[in-house]
Amino acid sequence: MSYNDIIKNKKFIYTLQSIDRLEQDRQFCKHGLSHLFDVARTAYIISLENNINIAKDIIYAAALLHDIGRAEEYEKGTSHSEAGAKIAACILNDCGYTDEEIKLITQAILFHREDSGKNSLGSIIYAADKLTRPCFACVAAKDCKWSSDKKNLTMRY
Ligand SMILES: [Fe+2]
Ligand SMILES: [Fe+2]
Questions:
Q1: 115 — phi, psi (to 5°)?
Q2: Which structural domains are found in the chain, ordered by start?
Q3: Is the pTM value of this prediction over 0.85?
Q4: If we measure between CA atoms, which residue out of 27, 98, 37 comes closest to residue 62?
Q5: Which among 47, 73, 80, 118 counts the fewest CB atoms within 10 Å?
Q6: Ligand 2 centroid vs 125 CA: distance in angstroms?
Q7: Minimum-distance ligand to the CA of 32?
Q8: What DSSP string describes 20-36?
């Protein structure tokens, strides 16, 4: 298993294309490949800086898949965390991740919109998701529903 299997996975590629298409006219932050790799690299740096012992293939898998439920949210109104955890489980299984790894990663996806506790996979994905957003240069700031304390106004990584 490797996160490089995820980026070659047909379901991953297809779903990401749907998200790109559905977000074409979105004025707020988008959820394409560059956001996913921003989150992956940042989460990995956070793990290294804080001596959090989680394998790179686990961190990258969680980051690459954390917003995979976005298409279903736009199309059916399902929360993207819940939809994403289900889609991610299929992709991870296809990519040879073990049941235990799939459980860990899908839990992190399910709770990536709240801080789920110190040094967990979910908490570093949550932190990286926020820290990578260039809110200081946002053209849609006045319409963004993020509260001012959530907005990222400096770049740490
Ligand atoms: Fe998200
Ligand atoms: Fe995200």
A1: -75, 110
A2: 3-143 (1.10.3210.10)
A3: yes
A4: 37
A5: 118
A6: 8
A7: 2
A8: HHHTTT--S---SHHHH
